[in-house]
Design a protein that fits this description.
The protein is an alpha+beta fold and 480 residues long. The chain is built from ten helices and four strands; from the N terminus they run αααββααααββααα. The chain has helices at 2-19, 64-75, 78-101, 149-215, 221-256, 284-289, 291-312, 357-423, 429-463, 474-479; strands at 104-115, 130-143, 317-328, 340-349. Strands 1-2-3-4 form a four-stranded antiparallel beta sheet, with no helix packed on it. α3 packs antiparallel against α4 (149-215) and α4 (149-215) runs antiparallel to α7. It is elongated, with a radius of gyration of 38 Å. 26% of the residues are buried. The model is unreliable at 475-480 (pLDDT under 50).
Length: 480
């Protein structure tokens, strides 16, 4: 009978506690998330082949020097230390949240000497005398987490860890891309300098030809001045390219965190033609491929867990506590059986009135969720824009290169014709030199377009995630 009465009183107490909880305001302003399944590229964006970048996408350039530079940077670059430190900070926060869910055991010990008032509440023989009190105790606490507050906080911390890891992957991709851009810019500078040196030699011959014609009364000084000006401009371009090569080299050195002798072994390398690829469809595959999109999505999931934790704070907090110890007014009696103390029992904490603090915390968590959803939605549009623009640039540069190759072939044909006419005595040396310079000019333009194509290809690889492969199934991942 007494057992049934105690059970009834317990149920009644819990019912009253739940009824007395602060009410949870309804969530009426949640923003919808962008549906990635509907995201596609425009129909006119299509390259020769379809596909996604490989994890080490820079190997497609078939340049051992580039691969070695990127591998070295990814293994020990100062620019990745910050991202790695952020992962460590997120892991520490996760460990702290996970530790709070488990039981806690504390050891307390204290000793004091006190004189009790002879005119106070304590009668003689305690009152008016001095006593030493020694206490040693072990206390244990365990939060039952009935409403899943700690579980939600752990899930939110795990979401931040995963977001930081995705950001680290994005930092790796950006580092590899920057190294590739500076490396190809330096290679392009070397190649263009060699071609411009050949142009300078042709221009010098043309200047000498103008001088001979003037000496023989067959030319005018304006033609000679124009040729001299052209020669000076070519030499100026070479000087600018020399500065560019040094600038790109120092940028590479900074990215690698290397000393002054680290890049002395770099040598000119010929660019390779690439089979450019663009996926026919994006959809949810894009979420799994873009690290920054994964990070934004993980933060949205973490914000949902924070909301669950904020809602759980409205319910009673039940803590199971126990303590065992020894307490004596004389040190000699501390270890006697009569000095034992024991306590075990649950503790209930119920929010009844808190001036709106819980509602403010929940409102803040919901506002943060909406901000993260808005950021995620904008990231989706930004990512699709990046892919579309990168694909369009690759297309555009390919078209320009095709036209430039046609012009180069036409210039080479003109050079052959000029050489044949000169052999037949139908044209002078200047005509052949001008034709050769036209060919060299087309070659220089082709090198510039080649560098633009390399940059466009790098941007496309990064826009498509650079070989990153994450999970788009966040529900399953969060429960693991």
């Amino acid at each position: 009978m007494r057992t049934n009465m105690k059970l009834s009183l317990t149920v009644l107490a819990l019912s009253l506690a739940l009824a007395g909880c602060a009410s949870i305001p309804p969530d009426t302003q949640q923003l919808p998330q962008q549906d990635l399944a509907k995201v596609q590229l425009a129909a006119d964006l299509h390259l020769a082949s379809e596909g996604w970048p490989a994890a080490r996408w820079w190997h497609q350039f078939q340049d051992d020097q580039l691969s070695q530079l990127i591998d070295t940077a990814l293994s020990a670059s100062p620019s990745l230390d910050v991202a790695n430190a952020r992962i460590g900070s997120a892991l520490s926060a996760f460990d702290a949240q996970h530790a709070q869910r488990g039981p806690r055991v504390d050891l307390d010990a204290n000793a004091n000497r006190q004189r009790y008032s002879g005119n106070g509440l304590m009668p003689a023989p305690i009152g008016g005398n001095v006593y030493n009190e020694v206490t040693v105790g072990v206390q244990a606490h365990y939060d039952l987490d009935w409403w899943g507050r700690h579980k939600a906080q752990i899930a939110a911390s795990l979401g931040e860890v995963n977001a930081r890891r995705a950001e680290y992957a994005m930092a790796e991709q950006m580092l590899a891309a920057e190294i590739a851009r500076h490396y190809f810019s330096m290679q392009n500078g070397w190649a263009r300098m060699d071609n411009l040196q050949a142009l300078v030699e042709l221009q010098r011959q043309l200047v000498l030809d103008k001088e001979k014609r003037i000496a023989n009364g067959l030319g005018v000084s304006d033609d000679h001045l124009s040729a001299q000006t052209r020669l000076s401009l070519l030499q100026q371009q070479i000087a600018l390219l020399e500065t560019q090569v040094v600038t790109e080299r120092e940028a590479l050195r900074a990215l690698l965190g290397a000393d002054a002798s680290a890049l002395t072994s770099l040598r000119p390398a010929q660019a390779q033609a690439l089979p450019h690829a663009l996926p026919g469809k994006l959809g949810m595959e894009l979420l799994a491929r873009r690290p920054d999109l994964q990070a934004a999505r993980w933060r949205v999931q973490a914000s949902l867990s924070n909301i669950e934790a904020a809602q759980a704070a409205f319910y009673p907090d039940i803590d199971l506590g126990a303590s065992f110890g020894l307490d004596a007014i004389k040190l000699g009696k501390l270890l006697q059986s009569g000095s034992r103390t024991l306590f075990i029992g649950p503790a209930l904490s119920l929010p009844l009135f808190d001036s709106g603090r819980l509602q403010a915390q929940l409102g803040g968590a919901r506002s943060e969720r909406n901000a993260l959803i808005a950021d995620y939605n904008q990231n989706v549009f930004n990512v699709v824009r990046d892919v579309a623009q990168a694909g369009a640039r690759v297309q555009g540069v390919e078209n320009q290169l095709r036209l430039q190759q046609e012009n180069l072939r036409a210039s080479e044909a003109q050079l052959r014709n000029a050489h044949a006419r000169m052999q037949q005595g139908l044209a002078d040396r200047a005509s052949q030199l001008n034709a050769e310079m036209t060919v060299r000019g087309q070659v220089d333009l082709g090198m510039q377009l080649q560098n633009q194509r390399q940059n466009a290809e790098i941007n496309l690889n990064v826009a498509l995630g650079g070989g990153y492969r994450g999970s788009s199934d966040f529900t399953a991942s969060a429960q693991q």
